[in-house]
Amino acid sequence: MMVAASTSTSRLARRIGFRGALVVGLGAMLGAGVFGAIGPAATAAGSGLLIGLCIAAALAACNATSSARLAARYPRSGGAYVYAGRELHPMAGFVAGSAFLVGKLGSCAAMALVFGLYVWPEHHRTAAILAVLACAVVNHL
User: What would the pLDDT profile of 70-121 be if each residue is shown by its tens digit?
Assistant: First the structure.
C-alpha cells in the first residue's frame, strides 16, 4: 500500500538548545553503561577505576559536545552524516551514517541485554529480545 506524500510545509519547532542536546547526548551514552559496565570495569581496573571513569566521562563529554555542535550547525536530522556529506564528500556522509546506524544497533542490543540481566537473569537473552520487540511495537504504533 502506498501512502501519498504530505504537501504541507509545517515543521516541528526546534526547542532544544545546545545545553539540552548536550544533556541528551550524555544521557544516551551513559544510560545503560551505569548499570551494566561498572561491575566488570571495577573488576578489570581495580584501584584504577576512578581514573578510568574520569577518562570515560571526559571522552563522553567530548562526543556529546561534538554531536550537539553538529546539530546546532546543521539543524537537520543526522548532524554527523549531514556534515560529512556536505563538507567532505557524499560517500563520507554515507559511511558516517552507516557507522552511526551500526553503532546504535549495537548499543541497543547491549542495553537490551542489561535490561534482561536485571529483569530475568536466568533467561536474559529472551528478556532482551522481548524488550526489543516491545519497543518496536510501541514505536510502530
Answer: 878 888 877 778 888 999 999 999 999 999 889 888 888 888 999 999 999 9
Helix (H, G, I), strand (E, B) or coil at 120: coil
pTM above 0.85, yes or no: no
How far apart are alpha carbons 88 and 55 in whole angstroms? Answer: 30
Specify burial of residue 84 (Cβ count, 10 A radius: 0-12, 13-18, 19+): buried
Amino acid found at 47: S
Question: CA-to-CA distance for 141 and 137, rounded, in angstroms?
Answer: 6
Q: State the Cα angle at 131 between 130 and 136, rounded to 5°.
A: 95
**Residue 23, CA distances (Å) to 119, 136, 138 in order:** 27, 25, 25
